[in-house]
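Quick start: what a row looks like.
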Amino acid sequence: METGSHIRLVLWKAAKAMEKADLKSLAYTGLGLSDFTVMEALLHQGPLPVNRIGEKVHLSSGSMTAAVNRLEKKGLVRRAQDPEDHRRFLVRLSPVGRRMIEYAYEKHRKNMDRIAEALTQEEQSELVRLLKKIGFRADQVDKPN
């Protein structure tokens, strides 16, 4: 019988292996994984306030600010005042940033699909279902026994 700690170890190793493959495919862009995930969120969600991006990509406020500053310095994103709430700023992809992330995301998607091909379509669906189930349960457990 598998233990929770063994499941956690296997999940961690699989995630690290996928991350390593992902980083290799992003190396040509000069983007780190956090910068890529910020740009990916903007690609799929459109302009967002910095704190919302941080929530989506699980980066702290300080890490988010640093990532947006790096991307802005490279000309890949822009900050603009939110027309609906002048107290906050939205981050959006620049035209150059949009082209870069569209290309990088497509390469990323293909790499992840190649890895997922180790499983049948049915197994992929089952894995997603089970990972969501375990993630939901992990969120419910507030303290160890």
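That is the whole record. Residues 4-26 form the longest helix (23 residues). The chain has a mean pLDDT of 91.
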